[in-house]
């Protein structure tokens, strides 16, 4: 009896169906991926790299500021030494003229005696060792020669010191160039990374920064008393700069880096403080507790002491935080930088105590 069941499909036919189905599924998946791409998990990493580069740039900026300040001090020392050397050379020339007059008089009277030979000797120190020659010199001649010798030694010392300072200055200028290249390199790399973000991502990042800047307008500072009159005046000067842009190496009045803001502000209050955050960290009176800070105290941030701002009261810092940001108020807890300690500035006769010796005014 014949069977009425349908015959089984061949294995070749089955394989063809499966292959076609798989191909269709792949095509649909590709179309779906093209129409609605999955989020790139690396974008958050790019943003983190940008933030890290900005932080490294601000750290390098403080080292640049230190080298620049050192170069300024060295340049002044070199100028002073060279001016002194020029004056000593002029005095030496006058003495040489006097000694030449004595020699001319001796020559006209019948030749150079040993006393005048001593005056004109290329090695007067050695010649003076000859005690018998001294007997033939007048007191006035001895005084003139000794003065000449002393000024020669001083001039040589001044020139030697100027040469050493010039060497230090050249090394410091080379360091300045290296720091500048480092900062510019980090900022350029950050910009290249920014350019890899989509327009929407860049706009979102800018909006976040703008929100942080605008939040300064709504900060509640409380009614805490300032640390001192001068600190209060410096803090008021800093408050007047809210909204000014961060620019590395800038000291105001219309752009600042972090220590540029604090040094400029105290300058407006008639107090001179060091230029860099590391040096500002080591003047005045150290305040180790956040709870003990008063408005106008400096706040030192990061373990390498590479950031500084003003304590603004109510747990806020007023600072120039980073490239792309503005001078603004910000929560210390949310700044992303560890608090190291505070510095309370005291002063005597308009100069900072601890930076120059004096009594702290509390």
Summarize the model shown.
This protein is α+β, with helices and mostly antiparallel strands.
For this entry, give a set of tags.
362 residues, alpha+beta, six-stranded antiparallel beta sheet, disordered C terminus
Q: What do you see in this structure?
A:
The chain has 362 residues and is of the alpha+beta class. 57% of the residues lie in helices and 9% in strands. It has ten helices and eight strands. It has helices at 11-35, 42-108, 114-119, 124-128, 131-134, 139-196, 199-214, 229-239, 258-268, 277-280; strands at residues 285-287, 298-301, 307-313, 316-319, 328-331, 339-344, 347-348, 351-352. The protein has a six-stranded antiparallel β-sheet. β7 and β8 (351-352) form a beta hairpin. The chain is elongated and about 90 Å long. Residues 1-39 and 348-362 have low confidence and may be disordered.
Strand elements, count: 8
Order of helices and strands: HHHHHHHHHHEEEEEEEE
The chain-level structural class is alpha+beta
- Our measurement of the CA-to-CA distance between the termini, rounded to an integer number of angstroms, reads 117 Å
Largest sheet: 6 strands, antiparallel
Low-confidence stretches: 1-39, 348-362
| Residue-averaged pLDDT | 79
The proportion of residues forming helix, as a percent range, comes to 55-70%
Q: Number of DSSP helices?
A: 10
Strand order, largest beta sheet: 1-6-2-3-4-5
Strand content: 5-15%
Using the CA coordinates, give the radius of gyration: 37 Å
Shape: elongated
